[in-house]
Input
Amino acid sequence: MKVTELDTLDPLQQVVAVLQEDIVLGRLTPGARLVEEDLADRLHTKRHVLRQAFVELERFGLVERKRNRGAAVRRLTLEDVTQIYAVRAILERAAAAQIPLPLPKADLKAIVTAQRKHDLAVQAGDAKAVFLANFDFHFALFAACGNPYLASAIDDFRIRTHVVWSYAIVRPEYFRNAQREHQAMLKAIRDCDRRKLIDLCTAHLNISRRAYVETRSLRLER
Output
């Protein structure tokens, strides 16, 4: 998130946004303890704001708090990942089925603009920019379904997989694959091919999930 964008958020939202970014980019790895004193100093915030941020992040399944042990980045099991992605598949297929085709010009422009940012980020190899542009692309895509409650639920579950994304974001081949699949989705929208769009949205979920499973399997073998 750009500094100018962060400046528009209240102190709690700023802390939540920074910690989410740290988790996605692997600065805070699964199991990492969230030491209040260190984070308060680094983020220039009060401890009570930090604790509120932990509560918010716990709501999204990114952080777990244990009595007398403090907070830590949540470790997702393979079963957790399987179940979360199963829900994401249901929600995203439903949204893709409701996107009007042909798509209104304003909605199409928002998706195209987000993907241009994604293309530039991938070309530059900027992991942070890739993540932010990827989020913008999917936000614009599913907002086009016309059901704000469904779009909000999709965003909530996408945030729950930030820990999973941290395994893919450091591997350029994965976000190049994401770029190709985004472009294929745009083609399906322009072609008014709903079946293709639904299938692409479902298959697209495999990018971050596969990276997580492959990386986790390698770590277990060592």
In short: The chain has two domains: 3-73, 78-221. The first strand starts at residue 33 and ends at 34. The domain at 3-73 is CATH 1.10.10.10 (Arc Repressor Mutant, subunit A). The beta strands are 33-34, 63-66, 70-73.
